[in-house]
Amino acid sequence: MQELTDQELQGFSRLMAEAAGISLPGSKKALVGSRLARRLQAMGCASYAQYLELLRRDAAERQRAVDLLTTNETYFFREPGHFAYLAERIVPAAESSRPLRVWSAACSSGEEPYSIAMLLAERMGSRPWELVASDISTRVLQQARAGVYPVERAQRIPQPYLKAYCLRGVGEQQGRLAVQPWLREKVRFECINLNGPWPQLGSFDLIWLRNVMIYFDAPTKRTLVARLAQALRPGGHLFVGHSESLSGLESDLQSVQPAVYRRLGA
Question: What angle do CA 232, 18, 75 make, to 5 degrees?
Fold first, then answer.
């Protein structure tokens, strides 16, 4: 099989920009080549250029390529400061007359939304809440809906949460843990391209979109931030990754602490 050329990398970069708003610079050349190599063989393509032509014709295969080229690094209770802010600032202020609505907007294999769900189940008491989780990758959404993980992934889950909201596998499932079925059912998973049309989601009190916008160019990021702000209720919060910043972007969002923004108006 031929190596990936610079011209072919540009072709995949254009495709990913159109499909997901993600940029693939030259530094990603080796990663792109290695992640797509097996699909070339599986589809009988002799070159990356031939596979690229296939992707332009085959929507299902294009989705598989997006899945393979999307980075999905996540773990339970990532960035504890965000969970502390949720527990100490947002939950106590939540109204009892309507559900607290949360969107985990790049949920990967589900560790983030299930971490949020555990905290809300523990802290909200009888007050209602709703949790939507989305990703562009159908592959990781399948894992997320199953809610089953290697037991090693549980290291960051607080022990009381682990006992209350997770099941330890036995027999053939030994070495794995599962999120309690009733808690899984509280999370609504959707396949959403953040840079494409969104389904009717309603307004949210909190949106988590962490370590995703670093892959977008400035115009894409600016447009997305404006859309996220409109999806928040006045006074609602947006959590981003600690390596990300919204400085220089005009929006209704005001920084309240590192990586936490609040929509003005309430």
Answer: 55
Please state, rounded to an integer, the average pLDDT across all residues of the chain. 90
> Distance (Å, rounded) from C-alpha 251 to C-alpha 230?
9
57 lies in the same domain as 95: no
H runs (alpha helix) in the chain: 6-20, 29-42, 48-57, 59-69, 80-85, 91-93, 111-123, 138-146, 159-165, 181-184, 218-231
> pLDDT tens digit string along 213-240?
877 888 888 999 999 999 999 999 999 9
- Tell me the CA end-to-end span of the chain in Å, nearest whole number: 59
- Domain containing residue 150: 80-263
Q: Are residues 230 and 114 in the same domain?
A: yes
**Residues classed as catalytic:** 35, 135
DSSP string, 101-114: EEEETT-TTTHHHH
